[in-house]
Structures are given as C-alpha cells and as structure tokens.
Amino acid sequence: MPQPKVTSSVVRLVPRSAPQPCERRALEQVAAAAFGQRRKMLRQSLKSLSIDPARLAAAANVDPTRRAETVPVSGFVAMACELTNIRTTKSNVP
Fold first, then answer.
1. Is residue 86 within 8 Å of residue 41, measured between CB atoms?
2. Of the candidates 79, 88, 90, the residue with the CA atom closest to the CA atom of residue 27
3. Which of 4, 19, 49, 90 is the most buried (most CB within 10 A)?
4. pLDDT tens-digit series, residues 1-34
5. How many helices (H) and strands (E) does the chain have?
6. How far apart are the first and last CA of the chain?
7. How far apart are CA 77 and CA 58, in angstroms?
8. How far is CA 75 from CA 2, 17, 42, 49, 82, in A?
9. Cα–Cα–Cα angle for 27, 76, 25, nearest 5°?
10. Alpha-carbon span 61 to 64, nearest angstrom
11. Residue 65 pLDDT > 90, yes or no?
C-alpha cells in the first residue's frame, strides 16, 4: 500500500499480409542509420551509409530535414530500394 500509479497497455502487432518489397539488409541499414543518432535530421544521420543522403531522401519523396520518427515505413522501404540500386550500379561500373 498505497496502490502504484501505473498505467498499463497491451499492444497487438499484426504483420502485413503483403509486405512492401525491398532488400532486408538494405532496409536494416537505412533504419539503423536513421535512428542511430538521437534527434538528428535524415540529412545528417544517413551520412553514415557513405551515400548522398539527399539522393536517398529524394527517392523516398521525403524532406531530408525530417527526423526518422516522422518518416513512414514506405519512406524507409523506398530509401532501401534506392540504396540497393546505387550499390548495384556502383558494382556494375567497370
């Protein structure tokens, strides 16, 4: 006694029936870079990928001054697809 002042909630996560296609490793890298530095804008946090952050953000139709927590999942998928395209193009250049 006294009764604790705690509010509890239950969250149920339901997987999507058809996830958006992208390379999982690229998506993990983009998400880790974006969320790796607390409260940083995408243009700064995505620099750790050694790719132009503005190009990734433009591919996702996302403002590079946004923070990671405000970007929808579809934005991260688009950035991951662009990252894969950039790396594939670089490896095909003689």
1. no
2. 79
3. 49
4. 888 889 999 999 998 898 889 999 999 999 999 9
5. 4, 0
6. 73
7. 13
8. 47, 19, 12, 16, 11
9. 5
10. 9
11. yes
